């Protein structure tokens, strides 16, 4: 073997050693471009889902007041095109809002929303559900929950077996609805020794059979101080555990972070079972993670790191590669960054010079490209990655 060949093989061996010893992670997203899909947006958060066939579903409120309806717009992966929006609440003089859409591993996509009814001059709130397989046909509306108290902020997920979980705010409490044996059951989410003064803006994720992880905001004013917390709990096989506060702020001043519509909590997990939670407080977005089902958590980390401007609307998601994606609104724009192998990517501006952005929704397609929707004023937009170049060398 001549000297040049030996040198070449030595270089290859050294490069292979470096790659296997030190994970390399990089990505650069090419975006399809910002698209306006409605100019009559509502006043409640958007929702986005991607089914097992990689079709996208955007659920949103169109119109306000009594004319508010819930629409769904679908992107057909096979046709590589967007279909016309469909009115799925389809009521008159009855406001429909707080849409929530997600897909289960069995191929079904589930839509939930809240309708406010007036019966004998009194308001009542109902949560409805419809489902579809590949968007061909939506099932009739099914009532999931009925209450004489305000109901809002719906977020749902499915476990790996297809079991459905839906969490929401009702009368300043967080509730969990579970679908099993063709029946919906609803329970209060425990808050320990804290009085249920105001619990709101829940989020939920699941990575194991009959298991879900929840985070939400808690707020109480005792006449002197404001007690604001981010709460976490684990649900598994009919019982709750690991209840704790991921953050607590006690102050004599009413913190800016307490507007429910601006500061939802969010939670996601990667393919190795690690849980990530994020929330907004004191104008910044913070996050922490757990590798043991929420029993213990890492120290919090500032994800936005922008003390001179306000950061709102955090949203976490994961992709099939195992990355955690994070979007938020800062200084009117929607931003994205991605976490993998203990490294955050550079920040990307998704909204491309927005005037004022609200409620970003996030998902990823079968190729691990991000799909994001958001609202600007009355206009609704989406943008999607079409070539997310990912270079990953992972040792575990």
Describe the structure.
The structure is a single chain. The protein is mainly beta and 396 residues long. Helix content is 5%, strand content 56%. It contains 1 helix and 31 strands. The strands form 7 sheets. Strands 1, 2, 29, 30 and 31 form a 5-stranded antiparallel sheet that branches. Strands 3, 4, 5, 6 and 7 form a 5-stranded antiparallel sheet that branches. Strands 24, 25, 26, 27 and 28 form a 5-stranded antiparallel sheet that branches. The longest helix has 19 residues. The protein is globular, with a radius of gyration of 22 Å. The relative contact order is 0.13.
- By DSSP, the count of extended strands is 31
The main pleated sheet reads as:
5 strands, antiparallel
Which range best describes the helical content: under 10%, 10-25%, 25-40%, 40-55%, 55-70% or over 70%? under 10%
Task: Name the shape in a single word.
Answer: globular
Classification by helices and strands: mainly beta
Distance between the termini: 35 Å
Percent of residues in β-strands: over 45%
CA-based gyration radius? 22 Å
Question: How many helical elements?
Answer: 1
Low-confidence stretches: 15-26, 256-262, 390-396
Quick check: average pLDDT? Answer: 86
């Amino acid at each position: 073997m001549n000297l040049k060949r030996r040198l070449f093989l030595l270089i290859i061996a050294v490069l292979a050693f470096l790659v296997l010893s030190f994970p390399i992670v990089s990505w650069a997203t090419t975006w399809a471009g910002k698209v306006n899909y409605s100019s009559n947006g509502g006043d409640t958060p958007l929702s986005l889902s991607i089914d097992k066939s990689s079709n996208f579903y955007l659920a949103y409120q169109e119109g306000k007041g009594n004319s508010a309806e819930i629409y769904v717009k679908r992107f057909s992966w096979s046709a590589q095109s967007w279909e016309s929006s469909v009115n799925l609440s389809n009521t008159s003089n009855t406001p429909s809002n707080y849409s929530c859409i997600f897909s289960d591993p069995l191929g079904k996509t589930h839509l939930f929303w809240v309708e406010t009814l007036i019966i004998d001059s009194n308001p009542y709130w109902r949560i409805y559900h419809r489902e579809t397989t590949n968007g061909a046909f939506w099932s009739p509306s099914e009532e999931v929950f009925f209450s004489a108290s305000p109901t809002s902020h719906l977020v749902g997920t499915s476990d790996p077996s297809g079991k459905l979980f839906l969490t929401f705010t009702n009368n300043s409490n967080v509730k969990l609805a579970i679908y099993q044996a063709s029946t919906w059951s609803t329970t209060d989410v425990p808050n320990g020794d804290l009085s249920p003064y105001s619990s709101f803006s829940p989020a939920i994720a699941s990575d194991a059979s009959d298991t879900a992880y929840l985070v939400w905001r808690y707020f109480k004013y005792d006449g002197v101080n404001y007690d604001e917390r981010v709460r976490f709990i684990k649900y598994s096989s009919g019982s709750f555990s690991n209840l704790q506060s991921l953050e607590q702020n006690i102050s004599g001043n009413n913190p800016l972070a307490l507007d429910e519509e601006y500061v939802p909590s969010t939670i996601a997990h990667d393919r190795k079972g690690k849980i990530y939670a994020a929330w907004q407080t004191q104008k910044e977005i913070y996050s922490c993670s757990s590798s043991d089902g929420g029993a213990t958590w890492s120290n919090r980390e500032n994800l936005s790191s922008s003390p001179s401007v306000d950061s709102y609307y955090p949203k976490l998601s994961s992709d099939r590669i195992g990355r955690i994606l994070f979007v938020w609104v800062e200084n009117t724009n929607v931003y994205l960054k991605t976490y993998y192998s203990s490294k955050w990517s550079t920040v990307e501006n998704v909204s491309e010079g927005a005037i004022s952005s609200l409620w970003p929704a996030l998902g990823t397609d079968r190729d691990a490209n991000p799909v994001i929707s958001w609202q600007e004023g009355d206009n609704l937009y989406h943008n999607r990655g079409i070539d997310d170049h990912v270079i990953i060398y992972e040792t575990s």
